C-alpha cells in the first residue's frame, strides 16, 4: 500500500480474523489481494488464508469484494473507445467432454448483434479447452495484443483469445498455491477465480454453463447448483448482469471429443452439412437465447431462438466464424473446408461393439481421459498436445447395437495408442438389455438471489 492509504492491518491479522469466523472488511480484502499481487504476501500466507476461507467460508459481500479486488489486480479492458453499437457479452462453461459450444455460439451471437470478447482457457484434466481447439487451426494465434483483440471484436463481432499475463494476475498466484494445498474446491474461491477474469474483460452480460454429472468437474448436482448461484450472485453484485444454466454432463455433449475434430464439428454445425448433435444443439440455442434476452437484444426467448437459428442457417454465422479465424491469423478454410487444413491422425479406425444391447451410458470422465491418453490433453501443465487425435462418431446413450457394429472412430498417432484407447473406451461404457433414455441436457436456470 502507498503511504496515502490507511493502514488496515497485517496479513497474519486477516488470516486470524477469517480463521476465527470473522467477516473481513472490503479494505482488508483489497489489501490482501494487493499484497498477493506485489509479493508482500507470501505463499505460506496465501495458503493459510485459503485454508481459513475453506473452513469458514466467505459471505456474498466478501466474495464480491475479493472478486473486484482480483479484477483490479491487473488490466481491466475498456470498450468505450471502440464505440461498439451493441451489448458486450460472453458465456463461460465449467468444462466437459465434447464441449465446443463457444466455437459455434460466439459467431452466432455476433450475427445477432452482440459483441463477444471471449477470453478462454486450455484443457484441464479430462475436460477439453477452447484455446487448445483453436490452436489446432493452422496459423491461429490465441496470444495477441489487447489492441488486436479489440479490433477483431469490433470488426467481426467476436474474438477468442487466451488470458494475458496482465489480466487478473493475483488469481494466477492464488490458484497456483491453492492447487498444491487442497483448497481448489471451495465454491467462493472458484467464484472469485472465474468471475474476476470475466469482469476484467469488460463484460456487460455473462451467462454460465454450469455442468453436473459424472463428466463434470462438480459431479453432484446440488454442489454444481450452489456454485452456479454463487457465481450469479457475485457477478450481479459486481455490476455485471449474470445468469446460469445447469446442463447435464453424464454423456458426451457432441459427436466428437478432441481438438481438431471438435473444430471440424463446429464448422459442420454452422454449415449444416451433417446431422447436428441434438444435445449440443440444445445447449447452444438455450444459452444463446437466454443471453440475448438478458442483454436486451430480444424481448423473448422464442424470438431470440429464431434469430439464432436464422443466423446459423443463413450462413451468416459461418461467415463470421471464417472471418474471426482469419482475423487471428488462422486459415479461414477451417470454416468452409476443414478437412483441407486441419491436422489428421495417422491411425483412424472404428471400434466394433463387443456385444448386443443398448448403450445405457458413459463414464464420461474416462471418455475424456481417453483423449488425454491419446495425446489430446495434458497430464502436466503446459505440456504440448497433439491436435489431430480424438474420438468421432460418439454414439448417443440409448443406441442399440449388435455385436460387431461400428461404435466410435478413434484417431490416434500410433497403433499402440489406438489399442490403449480402445480398451479405455470400452471400459467407459455401461450396457443394458432394455431400451434406455439419457437424462435431459438442460436443467435449472439460475438467476440472482432476491
Please render the helix and strand layout as text.
Layout: H1 11-19, H2 26-38, H3 43-56, H4 60-71, E1 89-93, H5 101-111, E2 116-120, H6 130-134, H7 146-156, E3 158-162, H8 169-179, H9 187-200, E4 205-212, H10 221-237, E5 241-248, E6 257-258, H11 260-271, H12 278-294, H13 301-313, H14 316-327, H15 333-336, H16 338-341, E7 347-352, E8 357-362, H17 364-376, E9 390-392, E10 400-401, E11 406-412, H18 415-427, E12 429-432, E13 442-446
Parallel strand pairs: 1-4, 2-3, 4-5
Antiparallel strand pairs: 5-13, 6-9, 7-11, 8-10, 8-12, 9-11
Helix pairs in contact: 1-3, 2-4, 2-8, 3-8, 4-9, 4-10, 5-12, 5-14, 9-10, 12-13, 17-18
Question: What do you see in this structure?
Answer:
The protein is α/β, with parallel strands linked by helices and 450 residues long. It folds into 3 domains: 11-57, Transferase, Pyrimidine Nucleoside Phosphorylase, Chain C (Transferase, Pyrimidine Nucleoside Phosphorylase, Chain A, domain 3), CATH 1.20.970; 80-339, 3-Layer(aba) Sandwich (Pyrimidine Nucleoside Phosphorylase, Chain A, domain 2); 344-432, Pyrimidine nucleoside phosphorylase-like, C-terminal domain (Aldehyde Oxidoreductase, domain 3), CATH 3.90.1170.30. It is built from 18 helices and 13 strands. The protein has helices at residues 11-19, 26-38, 43-56, 60-71, 101-111, 130-134, 146-156, 169-179, 187-200, 221-237, 260-271, 278-294, 301-313, 316-327, 333-336, 338-341, 364-376, 415-427; strands at 89-93, 116-120, 158-162, 205-212, 241-248, 257-258, 347-352, 357-362, 390-392, 400-401, 406-412, 429-432, 442-446. Strands 1-4-5-13 form a 4-stranded mixed β-sheet, sandwiched between helices. Helix 10 links the parallel strand 4 (205-212) and strand 5. 53% of the residues are buried.
Amino acid at each position: 500500500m502507498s503511504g496515502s492509504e490507511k493502514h488496515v492491518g497485517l496479513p497474519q491479522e486477516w488470516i486470524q480474523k477469517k480463521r476465527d469466523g470473522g467477516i473481513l472488511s472490503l479494505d482488508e480484502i483489497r489489501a490482501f489481494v494487493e499484497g498477493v499481487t506485489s509479493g508482500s504476501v507470501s505463499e505460506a500466507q496465501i495458503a493459510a488464508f485459503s485454508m481459513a476461507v475453506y473452513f469458514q467460508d466467505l459471505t456474498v459481500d466478501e466474495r464480491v469484494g475479493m472478486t473486484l479486488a482480483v479484477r483490479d489486480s491487473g488490466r481491466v479492458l475498456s470498450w468505450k473507445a471502440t464505440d461498439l453499437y451493441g451489448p458486450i457479452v460472453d458465456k463461460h462453461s465449467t468444462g466437459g467432454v465434447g464441449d465446443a459450444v463457444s466455437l459455434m455460439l460466439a459467431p452466432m451471437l455476433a450475427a445477432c448483434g452482440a459483441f463477444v470478447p471471449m477470453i478462454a482457457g486450455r484443457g484441464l484434466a479430462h475436460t477439453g479447452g477452447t484455446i487448445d481447439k483453436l490452436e489446432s487451426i493452422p496459423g491461429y494465434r490465441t496470444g495477441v495484443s489487447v489492441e488486436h483483440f479489440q479490433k477483431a471484436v469490433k470488426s467481426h463481432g467476436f474474438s477468442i483469445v487466451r488470458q494475458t499475463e496482465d489480466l487478473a494476475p493475483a488469481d494466477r498466484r492464488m490458484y497456483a498455491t491453492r492447487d498444491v494445498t487442497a483448497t481448489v474446491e471451495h465454491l467462493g474461491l472458484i467464484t472469485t477465480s472465474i468471475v474476476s477474469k470475466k469482469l476484467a474483460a469488460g463484460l456487460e452480460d455473462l451467462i454460465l454453463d454450469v455442468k453436473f454429472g459424472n463428466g463434470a468437474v462438480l459431479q453432484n448436482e446440488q454442489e454444481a447448483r450452489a456454485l452456479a448461484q454463487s457465481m450469479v450472485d457475485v457477478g450481479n453484485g459486481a455490476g455485471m448482469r449474470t445468469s446460469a444454466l445447469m446442463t447435464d454432463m453424464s454423456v458426451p455433449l457432441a459427436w466428437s471429443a478432441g481438438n481438431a475434430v471438435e473444430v471440424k464439428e463446429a464448422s459442420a454445425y454452422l454449415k449444416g452439412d451433417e446431422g447436428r448433435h441434438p444435445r449440443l444443439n440444445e445447449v447452444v440455442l438455450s444459452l444463446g437465447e437466454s443471453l440475448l434476452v438478458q442483454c436486451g437484444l430480444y424481448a423473448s426467448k422464442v424470438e431470440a431462438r429464431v434469430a439464432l437459428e436464422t443466423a446459423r442457417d443463413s450462413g451468416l454465422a459461418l461467415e463470421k466464424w471464417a472471418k474471426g479465424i482469419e482475423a487471428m491469423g488462422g486459415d479461414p478454410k477451417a470454416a468452409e473446408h476443414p478437412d483441407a487444413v486441419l491436422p489428421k491422425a495417422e491411425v483412424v479406425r472404428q471400434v466394433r461393439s463387443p456385444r448386443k444391447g443398448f448403450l445405457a451410458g458413459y463414464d464420461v470422465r474416462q471418455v475424456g481421459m481417453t483423449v488425454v491418453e491419446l495425446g489430446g490433453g495434458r497430464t502436466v501443465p503446459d505440456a504440448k498436445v497433439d491436435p489431430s487425435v480424438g474420438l468421432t462418431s460418439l454414439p448417443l446413450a440409448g443406441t442399440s447395437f449388435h455385436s460387431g457394429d461400428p461404435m466410435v472412430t478413434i484417431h490416434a498417432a500410433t497403433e499402440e495408442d489406438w489399442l490403449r484407447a480402445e480398451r479405455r473406451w470400452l471400459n467407459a461404457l455401461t450396457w443394458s438389455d432394455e431400451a434406455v433414455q439419457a437424462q435431459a441436457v438442460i436443467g435449472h436456470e439460475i438467476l440472482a438471489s432476491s
